[in-house]
Known about the structure:
Layout: H1 2-14, H2 18-95, H3 105-109, H4 122-130, H5 138-177, E1 178-180, E2 189-191, H6 194-198, H7 201-242
Antiparallel strand pairs: 1-2
Helix pairs in contact: 1-2, 2-4, 2-7, 5-7
Amino acid sequence: MIKFFRRIRFDLMDKNKTGKYLKYAIGEIVLVVIGILIALSINNWNENRKLKSEELNLLSDIKTNLLSTYNTFKNDSILNQRDILRYEKIEYYIEKDLKYNIELDSAFGVLTFWSTPYITTTAYNTLQTKGLDLIKNERLRQDIAYLYEVELKSLVEDYDRSEWKISETVTPFFSKHIKRLHKRSLNDARPNDFESLKRNDEFQNILSMIIRQRKRGQVFFSDVMLGMQSLIEDIEIEIDSRK
């Protein structure tokens, strides 16, 4: 094709047809420019298509991570609620001045346990690396960042950190007054002297503190899970609308 145009150009120059040559030259320039613009347009289209595919794949990965974390939190909430009921049973025995019953072994066994929130963040970490602007929907981009940077961080840095702080008080008291029944079960424990423990103000204070903290955690989990559920639905809508 290039040789064809070159032959025409030389033919016009040999025959001294300057006017026609100039028109031809301008036409050739226009064709070149059009070709460049078409090439750029195709390149931009391909690049936008790749970015769109990358964005939708990443949104799908974030959704998968959120679903995994949501199910983990759901299980954590169930376990924490079960433990709260066990702690309240200890309170009931103390308030009613009841004699020790073996059913309290499991309650004392989980006094130092709680379900710490584990968050799957691989997709969000990838998004941070590639740049949050990869998500074109501004509101969705802001909602994703807010969930990870504010709500989930608050759950870890406020609630879970408080649990670890309380554990620093509970564990020494526990090791002094309560024995692990490890030969029978890794999750059971029993006080050395329950009658004495019932009259121990420090233990009652610790018990009320634990119950309050677990209930506080339930509120944290519930609020964050609502936000996650809403975000999952928004991501699904965005993906469906962009296919």
